[in-house]
Design a protein that fits this description.
The structure holds 2 protein chains of 2 kinds. By secondary structure, chain A is α/β, with parallel strands linked by helices. Chain A has 2 domains: 212 residues, P-loop containing nucleotide triphosphate hydrolases (Rossmann fold, 3-Layer(aba) Sandwich); 81 residues, no CATH class. Chain A has 13 helices and 10 strands. In chain A, a hairpin with a 2-residue loop joins strand 4 and strand 5. Chain B is an all-alpha fold. Chain B folds into 2 domains: 200 residues, no CATH class; 244 residues, no CATH class. Chain B contains 24 helices and 6 strands. Chain B is globular. Classes of the chains: A alpha/beta, B mainly alpha.
Chain lengths: 305, 576
């Protein structure tokens, strides 16, 4: 699958823009968390969103998904301006996962995914109490789709397990399944591999490619540079709430300002990072442990700590 | 009995080579206890329902026979006669609890005799035989060691045996309820509670209930039918006694209202401190549209229309209260509903023609509401069915039973639906639920207004059952008791609320001294519950998990049971 990413993404490869955020500003009192960020995501594209801690990545996500109402700017989804309400955003076709897992722990995996079906089903109180054939059909349909999605993310065997009993990596995948259950056109993943081991990270990458192949656009926040550079078609780097650079992984990873933003000083680290990322592009056995000495991967560990 | 092949049966003969001296001691104690029941305990016939007759066990003595027979049953288990049963029940723990109950019970009887007879000189030898028997049981069982148990979910009995267990349990509940209600004497009732608590604790410690809960989960339908049958048969055990049926009907009305509130509190997770006002709204609508001479609304539609109007008026009030407050966090709702309860009370106190329209007669309320009449069936009359007279209260009891059944249906069906999943999601993480497309505000408002609707419905019947409707029936304290019933019984659980409502309503009715101190007692009870069992007496599986977020053992256990039930072909069919 890493060969797929080696092709330089030619712009016509992607379809029409799904998400167009223009001039998004988010202020909390005197603090400007997100300042004039523009982001366009096209159909079938995997967009990476990187930046040091506190760069405003998650805040930006919250602006996109209606959790926050941007102070300025607008977010267009498939050409229409989205109302700043999470429910309307989901209904329009944009789903998200959370940086710190927010599953419904005391529900089973299947039930979690079925909650994701909520906005695509419409059994109301009366229907639920009377339970005619239509209700049963809809319920069975939700159940079937949920089970398929669990199979899709590789959790089919755990459908009746409590979400809180699942291992960490599985919980992250369950969150993705739950988001996919809302039938999105665009999925926003907030650090989908945080806390995963290299093998799980590799599986997550594979999963994201498969999601893309279903025709969805994907936006990923990650700190793991290898992951981002080998996954994404384009990468958008935020620093202190402002766009630093947006471009192909190659452009971004060779931009000295990105490394500066992460590390603080432009010296030989830059070359190392670039060299390391290149090496990774050529081959990385899925089970290989993360190479220790690279500044980028060290950085990710610190960031998480 | 068949156990799954995965569980080795190791202990049949290993742990029980020969009954030990302790075993014989406990057996002797149990036999003595039974013997004592056939002797006179006391000279005074008026005391404790007459324990003065030899060879004819009175009420309290029969309780001790039950304890002793249970003890002998567990002793037989220990001797290794029924190996598969032995691995299911922890006989040592059960015996300890049973013996402790017997000792406590006998000592209490002795104290009552000493205080009320008065003087221990009035005690007969039977009492002391009983005390010695109980003490021997305790001495024998004290040192008994528990055996390892098999997990009840791995045990599969034939389906009919499991159903039989449920039926027997239901029969015991029916019999116990009839017996408890029949106790006029407060002291005897107290002692009965001691007995009941002790036996329930013993069986719980013995692991019987964890087994029964597995069976119940397998046969949910049978359990529901059984419970309904018990509730339906109850009036037939009362032989036309209006006093008891009046209490039973009040308990049922209370429980029905609490069930409605449980949709709001237990399912949607909203704290509603003014729920009684919705019941009151229904009751006032019903009263004002009744044929009472004091009713000021001229339109007298058929009762079924009144029920619908009362329910709709209540739910409109719910919408008015809920729509502004449910948008903000939960605490505000509690405050606003508290205020709403007071507003309701003050409003009906003042709609007497002096300060507004003449509707409610102010503090005097609307008295003289006639009994309901469906065709030729008048709810005030006594009807004889199968030779058993069923009086006025029994009629209302049956009507309330239908309403309760309806609310339970609404409750369970909503709970297991798209809406129920939405509610759980809201309770667990409202932000995440919203971000997954759940209409959080709409679902909360629906729960609130729906709960009000059901309360209004129950209120319309309550007005006729109570004959009069006055503002002081619908005060904050009643809302607090409804909430206490839910907290005590178990949020989000039908059985729990029924238990909680029964305890809270029955105790003050049967025990006058509880009625005097009921605020103090319930306050203490709630504090104790919050500390030791926050999920309530009979919690729903999900609520128990929510209250014990750190309890990995519980989570594993719940999951195990769930997987077992999900894998079960019988229940899988029922689910589909």
């Amino acid at each position: 699958m890493s060969t797929q990413t080696l092709q330089q993404p030619a712009p016509p490869k992607f379809g029409a823009p799904v998400l167009e955020a223009s001039g998004v500003v988010m202020r909390f009192g005197g603090l400007t968390a997100v300042n004039n960020v523009n982001l366009t995501v096209r159909e079938g594209e995997i967009m990476g969103l990187i930046g040091p801690n506190g760069a405003g990545k998650t805040t930006f996500f919250n602006c996109l998904t209606g959790m926050y109402k941007p102070t300025e700017g607008e977010v267009k989804f498939q050409g229409a301006v989205l109302p700043p309400k999470p429910r309307a955003v989901v209904k329009a076709g944009m789903a998200r996962t959370f940086q710190n897992i927010r599953l419904f722990g005391n529900m089973t995996a299947l039930e979690n995914v079925m909650v994701g079906r909520y906005c695509r089903t419409n059994a109301l109180a009366f229907t639920s109490i009377i339970r005619g054939p239509k209700y049963h059909r809809e319920e069975a349909e939700s159940r079937r789709i949920a089970q398929e999605l669990l199979d899709f993310v590789g959790l089919g065997h755990t459908s009746e397990h409590l979400a809180r009993n699942l291992p960490y990596g599985d919980q992250r995948r369950l969150e993705i399944a739950r988001a996919l259950a809302t039938d999105p056109k665009l999925i926003l993943l907030d650090e989908p591999t945080a806390g995963m081991n290299p093998k799980e990270t590799e599986q997550a990458k594979d999963l994201i490619f498969r999601i893309r192949d279903k025709g969805l656009a994907v936006v990923v926040i990650e700190h793991d540079m290898r992951f981002i550079f080998s996954l994404c078609d384009r990468v958008h780097c935020l620093v202190r709430g402002e766009t630093l650079i947006e471009g192909s992984p190659h452009e971004v990873q060779s931009d000295h300002r990105v490394i500066e933003a992460y590390i603080g000083q432009p010296d030989e680290d830059e070359e190392e990072l670039v060299a390391e990322a290149h090496a990774h592009d050529h081959e990385t056995p899925p089970t290989a442990p993360t190479a220790p000495a690279s500044p980028a991967s060290d950085l990710t560990k610190e960031d998480r700590a | 009995m068949t156990t799954s092949p995965a569980v080795p049966r190791t202990k049949t003969s290993v742990n029980n080579p020969r009954p030990s001296p302790q075993w014989w001691l406990a057996l002797a104690g149990a036999v003595l206890l039974i013997a004592s029941a056939f002797l006179s305990w006391c000279y005074v016939p008026a005391l404790l329902g007459d324990l003065s007759i030899d060879a004819f066990p009175g009420g309290l003595q029969i309780l001790m026979i039950i304890v002793a027979v249970l003890a002998i049953f567990f002793l037989v288990l220990r001797s290794g006669r029924m190996p598969s049963m032995d691995t299911l029940l922890d006989s040592a723990k059960a015996l300890k609890a049973l013996s402790a109950t017997a000792v406590a019970f006998m000592v209490l009887v002795a104290i009552v005799i000493a205080l009320q007879a008065p003087g221990l000189a009035n005690a007969n030898p039977g009492l002391f035989v009983g005390i010695v028997g109980a003490a021997l049981m305790l001495a024998g069982s004290w040192q008994m060691a528990s055996d390892p148990l098999v997990d009840p979910i791995t045990v599969r009995l034939p389906g009919w045996v499991e159903i039989l267990v449920i039926v027997v349990m239901m029969a015991i509940i029916l019999f116990g309820a009839a017996y408890a209600l029949g106790q006029e004497d407060g002291t005897v009732f107290c002692l009965f509670l001691v007995f009941l608590g002790g036996v329930v604790a013993a069986l719980a410690r013995g692991g019987l209930f964890s087994w029964i809960s597995v069976i119940a989960a397998r046969h949910r339908q049978v359990l529901m039918m059984g419970a309904l049958a018990v509730a339906f048969l109850f009036p037939f055990t009362q032989n036309g006694s209006d006093a008891n049926m009046s209490i039973a009907t009040q308990v049922l009305i209370f429980a029905t209202t609490a069930l409605g509130l449980n949709i709001v509190v237990g399912l949607a997770g909203l704290l509603d401190l003014g729920y009684i006002a919705f019941l009151g709204a229904g009751a006032y609508v019903s009263a004002m549209m009744s044929h009472s001479a004091f009713a000021h609304i001229g339109w007298k539609p058929p009762f079924i229309v009144v029920v619908i109007i009362g329910a709709i008026v209540s739910s409109i009030l719910g919408l008015i209260i809920g729509s502004p407050t449910l948008r903000v966090s939960g605490d505000y709702l509690a405050i606003v509903t508290l205020a709403f309860g007071e507003i309701f009370r003050l409003t009906v106190n003042n709609l007497d023609g002096n300060n507004g329209p003449r509707l409610t007669n102010g503090p005097n309320g609307i008295p003289g509401i006639p009994d309901l009449e469906f065709g030729a069936f008048n709810f005030g009359d006594t009807h004889t069915v199968l030779g058993i007279p069923l009086g006025r209260f029994a009629n209302y009891y049956f009507l309330m039973l239908i309403v309760a059944g309806f609310i339970i249906l609404v409750f369970t069906r909503l709970n297991n639906s798209r809406i129920g999943r939405g509610w759980v999601a809201i309770r667990e993480d409202e932000k995440a639920a919203e971000a997954m497309g759940v209409n959080t505000f709409g679902l909360k408002l629906f729960a609130f207004a729906g709960g009000a609707f059901l309360a209004g419905m129950a209120g319309t019947i309550k007005a006729h059952q109570d004959v009069s409707v006055t503002p002081d029936q619908y005060i904050f304290l009643e809302s607090a008791f409804l909430l206490a019933a839910i907290v005590l019984g178990g949020m989000g659980s039908v059985a729990g609320v029924l238990v909680g409502a029964t305890v809270l309503k029955l105790l003050p009715e049967k025990l006058r001294f509880v009625a005097d101190y009921r605020l103090l007692i319930f306050g203490l009870l709630l504090v104790v519950m919050m500390r030791f069992r926050p999920e309530g007496l009979v919690p729903s599986r999900r609520r128990a998990l929510e209250f014990h977020a750190d309890d990995q053992e519980l989570a594993d256990r719940v999951e195990e049971v769930h997987l077992e039930i999900a894998a079960d072909p019988d229940t899988a069919e029922a689910k589909a």
